[in-house]
Amino acid sequence: MSTDDFFKVAENQFKVALPFVIYRTPYTNTIKGIFQENDLVYNSQHLEESGFVFSPFNSENNTVLLPLEHSEILTLENPEIVSRVTTPNNKKDTFTTEAKTAHINLVSKALEAIKKDTFKKVVLSRKETVSLTETNPIVLFQRLLANYSSAFVYCWYHPKIGLWLGATPETLLNVTGNRFTTMSLAGTQSFTEQPVWKGKETEEQQLVTDFIIDSLQPHVESLSVGNTETLRAGHLLHLRTKISGILKTKLSTIVKALHPTPAVCGLPKEITKQFILNHENYKREFYTGFLGELNIKEDKKRNPNRRNVENNAYHTIKSITRLYVNLRCMQLTDTKAHLYVGGGITKDSNPEHEFQETVTKAETMKKVIF
Length: 370
What we know:
InterPro entries: ADC_synthase, Chorismate_C. This is Isochorismate synthase. It comes from Aurantibacter aestuarii. This protein is of the alpha+beta class and about 375 residues long. It has a single domain (about 5-370), classed as Anthranilate synthase (4-Layer Sandwich). Helices cover about 30% and strands about 40% of the residues. A hairpin with a 7-residue loop joins strand 4 (about 50-55) and strand 5. Helix 2 crosses helix 8. The two termini are about 30 Å apart.
């Protein structure tokens, strides 16, 4: 299938108002598409189905499923993207003075709670609405592909729920068979060749790492924690620690233990989640939720050397789940884009600096809009 043909299928699916998702996993050059054959809303209760899931921040709400059994699956290898898309580089501040003041006040309120030892860390966000100069979501998706090779890039649509696009750097959970990998991701600064991480960022990263380890230990074995490293995501840098092991319980139990992580919620989880729901003054919906492939069967060859035909005869079909935290995302409505950005607040946070961090993060999406 050609690049043009693949994207025509996606555009036609959108025009006839049928659900679909097109996406590319990090550091790959393959785009996948799941095109649902009807407009029903399917939900996943226990993460036992096969398909693509889209789950909100508030885990008490339903996880939406695009089921494989009611969908057409298409794959596009080595798409022609970079030469086809030119992305404007105009920077544009679109926030209002009222929005800035509101976010600074929100951060200040959180710092007061931290001083009272109500919680150690909370992640606070805001929504910014901008006008679109390009309203075709497939074109915007291609711009994201061209700019963010290290991210999970997606365009998700359901006529009864909405239209979302994103380029997220954060893995919630990858599972192959019973082996899993996840990550703690925290701390943000603009890209530089020799980054210097300060105490606020390293403390925030350690809090996230410790939470994930503590949450996983009752449910896994052979737990392994890697070294903390710097991850580049477009024009931003983050701190990342990889964590892996073997599952000894159901996938839904692990996801429930992890989501929402301190990287998008806070510590302790339930207290900070309630603080967010009570004080952010808007609904996050699918921002800081999770999304991705659920229980997809893949043929895993034992020997990756294609010339070794004899060994290639030995292969297994394994179940693959790849879930990502929905960061660096936007929701499209008619000619508007709603951008969602936030940051972690600890005792060392500065309200003005925290607002500026959200401005920097918003550039990820604005880069493909203007």
